[in-house]
């Protein structure tokens, strides 16, 4: 987990302005020098808050990119300068490391050609907590990112600068195929991102690309739609471009996806080669097409959850999927491909049988694992499953590493359901065809 953000004067921790003021008031009213009895722990760091220094910044607390910064929102005019101006105002109003500005983006279609125009925080020069972008609605506020060159072009970048970043009620479209949405580098500062009722369309290389040697963590998506297509992945952890210590690039913790509509044409949804703690609950997950050509990394497959094995320390490796309906529309759609060397994978009350009646379904392997002596441990509870599941043995260790409880196998009986290392799997009260 990331460390705390230090107050500007380093005098105290984050909680005691209110507590200290209350204690001073109590002392003034009662004539006592201290409101805390001796030995009561009143001087504990956890009971203190930062002393607020400086002055509240001037200007409005809510900035409108149209009214205040000159954006047109007509879909034709380049609004890059207006968005850069809005972000500069928000960054300039940080006070005691806390953001004090909401950026409002009214209904409209905004063309942005300049990389980093929406959020531009390079090099960790700014240590701030709290940045909020607020749209009018998922289809009402749309930002089209159309840089002149797609390679390494990101609409947002946050390099060890901002924590607690929120995007609400807006849509992002890649106007230049292969552009990327968000680059986040962290050695402990970049964390706590939240996306609510947002949408992505168009062809991207990355949605969010996470990098660094410590925490990119506590990120949450609620009621969002992931559309478009992804040359790499919508959320990719561990680019290793600038990691201070690559073997330790494994602090990718706590990602929540709730009530999602994951309906994209091709590519990967989540790719986590350095482990992570990931929870997906509710919604529909559908790959609607196929990759336009073979690639060295992925061939023609599109995978919702791709967890290859990368070099790292013994970091957290935990994945949980619950109450999700998957569609496996063709043999190149993969639900999960996991080669983690330990940890747990758990599917609960999930269903991927929407196309189990089709002729290709029985021969597909939409769930694929490489399992060694330390796992990962794999469990399916009350799931409805199509095709076969593939298990590759990593090492000579034997014994069950995967368990299926109360599952319905649509295309095969349990004894035929496993492709590969069947000795790694145990079935309990399952039904098969």
UniProtKB/TrEMBL annotation:
Cite the Rhamnogalacturonase A/B/Epimerase-like pectate lyase domain residue spans from the record: 66-156
Q: Name one Pfam family in it.
A: Pect-lyase_RHGA_epim
Region Disordered: list its residue ranges: 36-56
InterPro entries on file: Pectin_lyas_fold, Pectin_lyase_fold/virulence, RHGA/B-epi-like_pectate_lyase, TAT_signal
| Protein name as catalogued | Rhamnogalacturonase A/B/Epimerase-like pectate lyase domain-containing protein
